[in-house]
Amino acid sequence: MAKLSLILCFIFITFSVLNLCNAKKKVGIYELKNGDLSINVTNYGATILSVLVPDKQGNVADVVLGFENFGDYLHDDVYFGAIAGRVANRVGGAKFTLDGKTYKLFANDGKNTLHGGHRGFSDVIWTVSEYVKDGSLPHIVLNYNSFDGEEGFPGDLNVSVTYALTDKDKLSVTMKAKALNKPTPVNLAQHTYWNLNGHNSGDILSHEIQIFASNITPVDANLIPTGKLTPVKGTPYDFLEPQTVGSRINELKSGYDINYALDEPSDKIKKVVVVHDSKSGRTMELWANKPGVQFYSGNMLKAEKGKDGAVYGPHDGLALETQGFPDSVNHPNFPSQIVTPEKPYEHFMLYRFSTS
Ligand SMILES: *[C@@H]1O[C@H](CO)[C@@H](O)[C@H](O)[C@H]1NC(C)=O
Ligand SMILES: *[C@@H]1O[C@H](CO)[C@@H](O)[C@H](O)[C@H]1NC(C)=O
C-alpha cells in the first residue's frame, strides 16, 4: 500500500507540473487483466509498467523492468517499457533527404538521432481514448498527434497504440500512424525489457533465445548500419537454433545490440523470437509484421532504481523490438519506412506466454 501511495504521489506531482503545459492531459496508470495475466500501462510515453505472468508452479511474477519512482520515467535514457518514435533506433547524422528536401533532426546521441530525438513519443503524454480493464477483451487505446516539424520530422501524424489482452496468455500491441499532409518516415518500437524469471531476479544470460533471422544489419562504431546484410552463420549472432544469451556474449564488446533481418517476408505476421527461461519455466513467443527485430541485451543498464527496491545492472533484462531496419531513411536498399497520407503505418505485435 505504501508503494502505491508513493506512486500516486509521484503521479500527482508529475500531473501538476505537466498540467501547466497542457491542462487537458492527465497522467494515469491503467490496469488490464485477463485471468492470471495482467499489465499496467501509463499514458506517459504509452509505457508498459508491469506484466504479471504465472510460472510453471502457477506463481505470478512481474517479468518486465521498470522504475520504482514514477518520476524517473520523465528523464530516463533506458526507455523502460516505452513506445519509441517518430523514428525508433538511430538516424545517422541526424538528417535525411526525402523528395529532394533535407530534414535536420534533433541530435541526442552524439551526431545521431536516437528514438525520435530529444522528446520522442516515449516522452510525451498520450490521450486515452478507450479503456476496458477486464471482461472478454481488456484493452486500452492511446493516441498522440505529432505536429509538423516536431523534432525535425515533416508533416502532421496521428498515432495510436492499442494494448490488448486478447486471451489469458496473449498480449497484443497494435501501432498505427496516419500522415495527414506530408510523407514522413515512421518506425515505432515497443521498448520493454524482459526478464522471464522476474524483473528482480538478476541477469538474463541463462535465458534461451531463438531468432528466426539468418542475417543482421551490421553497424559502425557509432551503431549506425553500414547498409550491408551479413549472415549470422558461424558468429555469436546465430540464434537460428535456441542458445542461451550468455553462451557467446563474451565474444562481443559489450553484448547484443543489433538488428536482425527476419527470414519471413516483411509485412507478414510471423514468429520472430522465442525466449525461454528454464528456472521459472516461462516461455514467451513474439510474433510481428515488421522486417527486423532489435535484440538488445541491456548492455547499458547501470544501477537503475527498479521496482520493489531492485537495482538493475548490465544484462538484467533484454529488449526485443520489432521494427523497420535502423537508419532506413539513409539506406535505399533497406525496406522503406516512408508513410504517406495514402499509405498508413501499421505494426502488429503479439506476445504469447506459456510454461513448460
Ligand atoms: C497496477 O496498477 C494497479 C492500479 O493502480 C495497482 O493496484 C497494482 O498494484 C499495479 N500492479 C503492479 C504490478 O504494479
Ligand atoms: C487526428 O486526431 C485528431 C485527434 O484525436 C482527430 O480529431 C482527427 O480526426 C484525426 N485525424 C485523422 C485524419 O485521423
TrEMBL record:
One of its GO terms (molecular function) is carbohydrate binding. It holds the Pfam family Aldose_epim. Beta-D-galactose binds at N89, R90, H191, T192, Y193, D257. Keywords: Carbohydrate metabolism, Isomerase, Signal. One of its GO terms (biological process) is glucose metabolic process. The active site is at H191, E321. Residues 1-23 form the signal peptide. It catalyses: alpha-D-glucose = beta-D-glucose. Its EC number is 5.1.3.3. Gene3D superfamilies: 2.70.98.10. Pathway: Carbohydrate metabolism; hexose metabolism. It comes from the Eukaryota. Belongs to the aldose epimerase family. This is Aldose 1-epimerase.
